[in-house]
Structure formats: structure tokens, C-alpha cells
Amino acid sequence: MNGNLRRWRPWLGLAVRLGLAVVWFWAGWSKVGDLAASGRAVNAYQVLPYDVAMVVGAALPFVELALALLLLLGLATRLAAGVSAALLLVFIAGIASAWSRGLAIDCGCFGVGGELPAGESPSYLPEILRDIGFLALAGFLLIWPRTAVSADGALAGEPVEDEDE
Amino acid sequence: MSSRKGRKDAARVVREQLAREQRRKRTLWISVGAVLVLVVAGLIGWSVWSSQQSEDFTAPPGANDTGTGIVVGSGPVTIDIYEDYLCPACKQFEQTSGATIEQLINDGKVRVVYHPVAFLNRYSTTDYSTRSSAASGCAAEGGKFTEFGKALFERQPPEGGAGLSDDELIDIGAEVGLDRDAFGSCVRDGKYRSWTKHVTDEAGRAKVTGTPSILVDGEPVREWTPENITAAVEAAGR
């Protein structure tokens, strides 16, 4: 049973890694076409000064796409997972703070963003739960960064079990 | 015999240590490379965004001093209206409160500043928000900003599609009484696109994050019913 798990973990890890890569790709791709809108989505949280929010909003989609690329290749998996987890924690904190301040915004996680039209209520709880789900994926990779079919594995050139000792 | 085995063991330990050391170094370099990739990605985003910033814009006639909107009316109380011609809630606002706003303008009670922002470019395949807003600048040039805006909301295309084409925008302009040639070339040349960007950026700076946003003397009216707007104007005028 234990041996089985050990044998399957790299493959489970591969699925987790690719899953998280898809999440970041989707998040980055939906925003990269309109960087000003991405900046406005950050600005809608009313946490950062306008100009800083615009720069963060412009940089974020590219960083998300880069994370997707690293995870897709399985390069520096633990680091990519760590950065993912850190970003997700910031996002969760942002949504929670918008919620607690009574703002009515879309999280802007996958495009869109900004203030909601009157009459539409924000869905902060599902957004936070979703991010916690993504956080779990990142956590898995932080603990077990060695996954099947990865650049890390190819570069290390040793059997996967090695790191587990 | 036993000493030879001992030497062998020692050699193996040294080999393993060297291998481990090498692996550590490799991991370090991979990590440094990955961090660089992330940092460079962020810098690319910043520079792409910076290259999209241009300060030059020509505000159409009828704009306010800061060039952030078109002024209609001259009453003592100012209403700022932030709208995107593609936003369904804005159409709804025009339908429920448009007549009230018009009445307030005609009664000389308010000065309305219309800010045609382009927040929703991602909801059309042709940057309809920017095109329609820039066209409204052309309409202001021809003195028909209000009429054109009204017609745009009446014919509002659905979100997610191509929006109205430039030709359709020009037809609408001609219908509300704009000169087809002058208005047409203004729309086609995108004369007021940079103005639209300015209007949109300044709206963000003014903490307007959604459309429609209605402010009466700077105070947001979240529930923009005709009653609430009239009440806010009366309160501000006192």
C-alpha cells in the first residue's frame, strides 16, 4: 500500500502540476489582452495607490503565464509551487479584505474584474474556496516536488525515489 | 580484506557526497533561472503597459477643463455619469433615469459631465467600447453628443459579439443629424481614441471601478433610481 502510493505519487504529482499550470495559464491569458483592464481590476480592491495598482495589474498576467510555463515543463517545481502559494495567499487576503470592507467587486481572477453593477451581489465565498483549492494543489507540489515527466527529473538524471530518503 | 572493503566504502561515501553537492548546485542554478524568468515576465508586462501609455490626446469640443468628459447643461449641481456604451446596466440606467436627467438639465438645475469610458473592451471582439466612445467624441464635435449617445444605447449590441461596425456607427450618426462625411472620417480615423483612453484612465484614478457610476457633486449614488438622483441633487443644491 505504502509502496503503491510511492510509485503513483509522481504521476499524481504530474496531474497536480499540470492542473495548476492550466489554472495559471487561464488566469494569465484572460487578462493579458487588456493590461489596463487588469490594472483597473487590481485598483478596484482599493488597496494600492492607482499607479501602483496599474503596474501590478500589467505585470501580473505575465507572471502568471510564466508560472504556467514553469509548471508545464516541471522546471523548478518547488519554487514555482512556492510562488504560486504566496500569490494565492495574497489573492485570498485581497478578496477577504474587499469582502470585509463591503466592496461590491468581481475578484478579477480570470479576467473581468471591477465593480459589479447595482443589483448583482459579489460571490466572495466561492472565489475564496476556489483559491483555497488551488492553494492545496500548490501545497502538494511544495511537499512532493518530484513529479513524473518533468524537466527537474530529467536534469537531475536520477530515479525519482532518491529524494524521498 | 576488511580494510579494502573499508576503502571501497569510503570512496562510495565521497562519491555520494560529491553527487549530492552537484545536485545542490544544479538545483540552486535552476532556481535562480526560474526566479529570473518570473521577474523578466513581470518586467515585460510593465514595459508593454508603459508603451501603451501616451499623454497626447485631443479632447473634443464641449469637454470639461480636464478633458475627462463632455459637459451638458449648466446648473449649479454637477452630476458625473460614467458609462460604457456596451454595458447593459448603463442602458438600463438610461431607460430608467435618462428622462429625469434630461429634465434636471432642462430645468437648469444640473450640469452633467458624461464620461464615456472603455471598461469593457474584452466583451467585444472589436474593441467596441473604445470605438463607440471615440465615435461619441466625434459626435460631440458635430454638436450631437447627447443624441448620438442615446441612439447608441437604444441599439446596444450584445456583449461577447463584434458590436456595431464603424459603418453602423456612422449610419447612426447620420440618422441623428451629423454630417456623414466629417463624422465618418472622424470615426474611421479614430481621432478621439486617445481621448477615450484618457477618459478611461482618469476614471480609474477617480476610483470609478464599474459602470454605470453616478456621482452627484462627487458623492456616489449607488442605487441610481430617478428618485434617489433627484433627492441627491436637491440635497446638494441646498
Question: Could you describe the 3D structure shown?
Answer:
The complex is a heterodimer of chains A (165) and B (238). The longest helix of chain A is centred in the first third of the chain and has 31 residues, at 2-32. Chain A is mainly alpha-helical. Chain A is 69% helix and 2% strand. The relative contact order of chain B is 0.14. Chain B has helices at 2-51, 88-106, 128-141, 145-154, 166-175, 180-189, 193-205, 226-237, and strands spanning 70-72, 77-83, 110-116, 213-216, 219-220. Chain B is 58% helix and 10% strand. In chain B, a hairpin with a 2-residue loop joins strand 4 and strand 5. The longest helix of chain B has 50 residues, at 2-51. The radius of gyration of chain B is 29 Å and the shape is elongated. The model of chain B has no long low-confidence stretch (mean pLDDT 93). Chain A binds chain B through residues 33-37, 39-40, 43-44, 46, 50, 54-55, 57-63, 65-67, 69-70, 75-76, 79-80, 83, 105, 111-112, 114-119, 152, 155-156, 158, and chain B through 23, 26, 30-31, 33-35, 37-38, 40-46, 48-50, 52, 87-89, 119, 121-122, 197, 200-201, 204-205, 207-213, 222-224.
